[in-house]
Amino acid sequence: MNHGTFKVFYRKKQENERVNIMSEKSNEKLKNTEIKNMIEKEFFDFFEKQKEDKLKKYKRHNQFVKKQQILFVGSSLMGWFPINEMQQTLDERYIIYNRGIPGYVTRELLNSMEQCIFELEPSKIFINIGANDMNTEDYKKEKLIRNYDEILTNISERLPDCKVYVMAYYPVNAKADFPRVNKDSKENMFKTRTNATILEANEEVKGLAKKHNYEFINVNDGLIDEEGNLKEEFSVEGIHMWPDAYALILENMRKYL
Hints:
Layout: H1 3-61, E1 70-74, H2 76-79, H3 83-86, E2 96-98, H4 106-110, H5 113-116, E3 124-128, H6 141-158, E4 163-167, H7 183-189, H8 195-211, E5 215-217, H9 243-253
Parallel strand pairs: 1-2, 1-3, 3-4, 4-5
Helix pairs in contact: 6-8
């Protein structure tokens, strides 16, 4: 093999090696993407199953409720409210049921109003729904308000004598670093769910409450720091809250109970 032939051979060998390396990297990237997608699908399926199970449990619980009582309804920000424990500390006796479901968006509540609201025939409803709508890539304020309007319309038609308190959305904290939240997760959590978005939605929801002759209530006093964020000490990961935050919220709600 002469020198020129050897150079051509060596160059082709290097090119083949580069192609192989790139192919291996591409396959590895594809494999990692497939694994990531599989994990995300498994998590999504598990989460959806949890919501289905919660709804089935509420359906069974509703057989034993006392009608014409107080109802809390919404997503996890309502579902995590430990009202069953906290109402025991109140001077006056109340019966308060919680039908919040973690992960719920307005459309899901629309599809399950029988189990979450109407079967209980409440005399008062405290509703906080729509925060999860803001946490989607295709979030549209108009869609949120349209669904919320339909929810309130259904309540007014089915429960004309029920008092409804439409709650302001709680603030979030996208600034603080929480141990259980990595950088990527944090970016996804607060991509569209910002305090500016929340304040804008609050104004729209306030208008909806007025339209239906319901009361819009803001019970967030004491939750917010000087920069307008949810106080770090009150939050689990920037969105959900610890029980001491709910104790403060309940104190702010007492005059409405």
